[in-house]
Amino acid sequence: MFGVAFAFGTAITMVPVGIFATEKELAQGFGDFAYLNTIGTITSGFIFLVLVLLGVLNRERPQVHKRFMLLATILVLWPAWFRFRHYFPQVPRPDIWFGVVLSDSLILLAWILDKKQNGRIHPVLLYGGILIIIENVVEILLFDTELWRETGKLIYYYLR
Amino acid sequence: MKAASPIKSRFSLFLIIGLIGLFGAFGGFMSTFFIPISKGVFKAPTIIYIHGALAFSWILLYASQTFLIHYKNY
Q1: Which of A36, A64, A115, A151 has the greatest CB tally within 10 Å of its CB?
Q2: Do A117 and B16 lie within an 8 Å CB cutoff?
Q3: What ranges do the domains of chain A cover?
Q4: What is residue B1's predicted lDDT score, i.e. its pLDDT?
């Protein structure tokens, strides 16, 4: 009950947080670069909510339920791992090393532990984890492309 | 041939990820949120605090639930 409220609250408030971050960067003179984060904010919020809802719908199947909730938690931790770049400013491409490698290493760790502790990687963890990794990698590949910039602008002006 | 049996661990994968998540959440936001707040230099709209509180509540709830389930104390 509390969990669902926290999840909906977290996902819904991602929208004004994303708008605030974009406006802050626009004010700092980042130009069109400021719009790039809006897509990531929206997709993360959406995927997080979908994972939580799938977890809730599968609450009578504990092995499925707890793995959806695990993936949702790993997803919501992304901004925290990305902030580790402030401790290591010498690391190049923080978007890759902290935004993808560090944050997604939790998925790899979960796969290893699931295999070790339960004898196999549960399909929810395997395919859900692969989807999250693909989403993160696609975001990195499209980042700062014309398509991403224009989509980010469109989302920003639509939500504002 | 008999399949390899899973290894019983002292800590479940859910508890391990929950604890690492707590460390990541507090560690990641320490220098950009918690320390500036403690010094009174962090300024942001109310919605940022609400979002932060909700997201941290989720992580805390996840970690505490996995802890209680692991130790069968629920």
Answers
A1: A36
A2: no
A3: 2-159
A4: 46
CB contact under 8 A, A13 and B32: no
Within 8 A by CB and 6+ apart from B25, the residues are A77, A80, B55, B56, B59
For the record, the structure tokens of A72 come out as 């949702």
B59 touches chain A (CB under 8 A): yes
The domain limits of chain B are 13-70
Provide ipTM, 2 decimals: 0.89
pLDDT tens per residue, range A79-96: 999 999 999 999 998 889
According to DSSP, residue A93 is labeled -
Q: Residue A72's pLDDT is what?
A: 97
**How close does chain B come to A16, measured CA to CA in Å?**
7
Does the beta-carbon distance from A118 to B54 stay under 8 Å? no
pLDDT tens for each residue of B21-37? 999 999 999 999 999 99
The closest of A64, A43, A63, A42 to A53, measured between CA atoms, is A64
| A6 → closest Cβ in B6, B29, B57 | B57
Cβ-based contacts under 8 A for chains A and B = 100
Contact A39, A148 (CB under 8 A): yes
Cα A145 to Cα B47: distance, rounded to the nearest angstrom: 30
